[in-house]
Amino acid sequence: MRWDNLTEGTTGPAALFGADAVVTRTFDTPEFRGITFHEVRARSIVNRVPGASRMPFEWTVNPYRGCSHACVYCFARKTHSYLDLDTGLGFDSQIVVKTNAPELLRRELGSPRWGGAHIAMGTNVDCYQRAEGRYRLMPGIIEALRDHANPFSILTKGTLILRDLPLLQEAAELTEVGISVSVGFTDTRLWRTVEPGTPSPAARLGAVRTLTDAGIECGVLMAPVIPFLGDHPEQLRATVRAVAESGATSVTPLVLHLRPGAREWFTAWLGEHHPHLVERYEQMYAGGSYAPTWYQRRITRQVHELAAEFGIGPARRDGARRLVTPERPAEEAPAGATQLTLL
Predict the structure, then answer these.
(1) Interacting residues of 69 by C-beta distance below 8 A, sequence separation 6+
(2) Which of 41-50, 157-166, 219-228, 282-291 has the lowest mean pLDDT?
(3) Which of 2, 65, 197, 302 has the most CB atoms less than 10 A away?
(4) How far apart are CA 151 and CA 188, in angstroms?
C-alpha cells in the first residue's frame, strides 16, 4: 500500500497523516469478517470541495475512506487508487479510519479563521457505514458541530444514524441541520446485487419516518436511478410512493453517473449479471461519466410529477447551507484536502 503521498514526509496539502501512526486491524466477527481497518491520525478533517463541483456547499468532513456498503456504482472508488488500493473489492474491504476526527474537527471549528460555513457529511463515503458501529466517530463530530452552532448536513444509506438522534435534536435547536437518506429504488432484487452491504430500502425509509416523527426534517435523495434496471415508470412510481409514505420532506432524483474507477467496476458487474445491457450502457455513457441530458431531464420530470401526485416536492435549495454563525467573522477558512464529491 502506498501511504507516501499522504504522509508527513511529503510536501504540500497532500500530507494528511503520518505513516508511523497507521495501525491495521481485523476483527473476526460476522459483521466485520473480511474487512481490514487502517486506523490513522489525520492532520486535517475539514476538506474543501473542488471549485468545479456541482455541489452547493464548499466544505465536507469524511471520517472514513472506503466503504463496506459495497455499492457497485460508488463514484468514490477512484479515491482508493491514491493509496495503491484496489478500487473494486479493496474499496469495499480496506477501510481507512480517521480515529482523531472528532477532536480534530473541534480544534478546526475553534480556529479564528473558521467562519462557520455549512459542512456536509456523507458526500464521499458513508459516515454511517458498518465501521461507525465500532469506532463511534460521529457522536463526537456532531457534538463539536453542536457546540459551535455550526450548520451541517448528513447524507447516508445507514440506519445507524438513529443511534445519534438525540444529538441531532440537540444540534437542531442551535443551528440548521439537514438530513437526507439515499434510496434510489425499492426493488429488493436490484438492491441485493448493487448495494449488498447496505440496509434494505425499506429499513432506510423506516429511518426517514423515525427522524421525521422526532422532529428532524429528512429528505430522500433518490439515487441512483439506474438506467434499464431501475427506471421503469412503475419502479419510479413505487419508489416515490414509498418515499411519500415515509414522511420525507422532499425527494430529489439523481441518475447514475459512472466516473473512472466506478465505471470499470460497474461494467464488470453488468457483464456478469446483465450482459445484454453492456452495449446499451456503452452507448448511453459514450459521452463521459454522465447519462445524456435528455435522459436526466426525463427522469427528473417523471419523479417530480410523481412527487406532486403523492404530495411531496423536490429538495429546497435554501436552509442549512446558508447559515453562518454570527459571532465569528467570515474570514479565510483553514485549508483542507480537496476531495471528490457526490456530483
Answers:
(1) 92, 126, 129, 157, 158, 195, 197, 198
(2) 41-50
(3) 65
(4) 35
Type of residue numbered 112: P
Radius of gyration of the chain (CA): 20
**DSSP notation for 250-314:** BEEEEE-B--TTHHHHHHHHHHHH-GGGHHHHHHHTTTSSB--HHHHHHHHHHHHHHHHHHT-BP
Percent share of the chain, pLDDT over 70 = 83
CA distances from 234 to 175, 184, 230, 240, 266 (A): 39, 14, 9, 10, 24
CA 277, 278, 281, 286 dihedral sign is negative
Cβ-contact 238, 186 below 8 angstroms: yes
Mean pLDDT across 155-165: 98
Give me the amino acid identity at 71.
Answer: C
Whether the CB-CB separation of 214 and 186 falls below 8 Å is answered with no
Name the average pLDDT for the chain.
86
Q: What's the rounded Cα separation, in Å, for the pair 283 and 286?
A: 5
Distance, in Å, from the CA atom of 95 to the CA atom of 305, rounded to the nearest integer, reads 40
Q: What is the pLDDT of residues 259-308, one digit of tens each?
A: 998 999 999 999 999 999 999 999 999 999 999 999 999 999 999 999 99
**In the numeric block, which cell numbers belong to residue 109?**
471549528
This prediction's pTM: 0.86
